[in-house]
Structures are given as C-alpha cells and as structure tokens.
Amino acid sequence: QVQLVESGGGLVQAGGSLRLSCAASGRTFSNYVMGWFRQAPGKEREFVARIIGSGGSTYYADSVKGRFTISRDNAKNTVYLQMNSLKPEDTAVYYCAARYTLHSEYAYWGQGTQVTVSS
Predict the structure, then answer these.
(1) Residue 65 has pLDDT above 80, yes or no
(2) How far apart (Å, rounded) are the C-alpha atoms in residues 28 and 83?
(3) For 11-15, what is the mean pLDDT?
(4) Which pLDDT does position 91 carry in this prediction?
(5) How confident is the model at residue 22 (pLDDT cuts 50, 70, 90)?
(6) Region 58-77: what's the mean pLDDT?
(7) What DSSP string runs through 63-75?
(8) How many CA atoms lie within 13 A of 96 on its CB side?
(9) How do beta strands 68-73 and 92-99 pair?
C-alpha cells in the first residue's frame, strides 16, 4: 500500500514557475513508476509526466515538454514536478500517482493540489 500526498500548488502569473512535491509512504518507493496527471475544470484527467523507479527514464506529454521536469529523490520518498514558463492553460488540479511497472495501471493516487496560472 502506498499513500501519496501532493503539495506546492498555488497561484502564479503566466511565465512563472512552481515546484510540486509528492511525498509517498512505504519502504519500497524506488520500486514504483511515478506519474503526474492533471485535470482542468470540465475536462478529463490527462497525463503530464512519468519517471521510472531509478529515475533514469522520463516521459512527458507534448503540451509540457521543454517546460516541465519530473524528478525523484528515493531517499526522501518524494517525486517532484518543476513547472516553468507556466501558461493559463496549465491551470488544473495536479495529481501524483504510482504504479508497479510501465505496463500496469496506476494503482495509487494522491488527493491533488491546485495550480492556477493567471494571465
């Protein structure tokens, strides 16, 4: 069982930056593929980025590539999402999630943190 708690959301002007954190419980954090997703009002939840257990491989949605960076610190059981050059369309609730492998479903989800980008 993994429990995930996001933090770091807030209100920022367009062009600004935020760093989200997701703290995970459990002693096997490094075994999990971690992902970030977001859901804007009236829209379906969408994938943002993911990182494998070792941190050696990352993958991004085209909409955030070059602006967002996902990373993890397995010693701290934490995954991060550094968001730069933020745009109003990045406004959403951001969720972190964990899955066992790249081929399994995301089994664990956090409660989300709100990111609002003003124009």
Answers:
(1) yes
(2) 26
(3) 98
(4) 98
(5) very high
(6) 97
(7) TTTTTEEEEEETT
(8) 29
(9) unpaired
Q: Which residues sit opposite 49 in a β-bridge?
A: 36, 60
- % residues pLDDT > 90 (the chain): 90
One-letter amino acid for residue 90 of the chain: D
d(CA 83, CA 34): 16
Which amino acid makes up residue 78? T
Q: Under a CB-based contact definition with an 8 Å cutoff, are residues 91 and 117 in contact?
A: yes
Per DSSP, what are the bridge partners of residue 13? 118
Locus of tokens 């066992």:
100
**Could you give the 3-state DSSP secondary structure of residue 116?**
strand
Residue 43 has which token pair? 């829209």
Residue corresponding to tokens 């899955």: 99
- Please provide residue 51's backbone torsions phi and psi, each rounded to the nearest 5 degrees: -145, 140
Residue 4 to residues 64, 74, 95, 110: CA-CA distances in angstroms?
22, 14, 9, 5
Res. 101: pLDDT tops 90: no
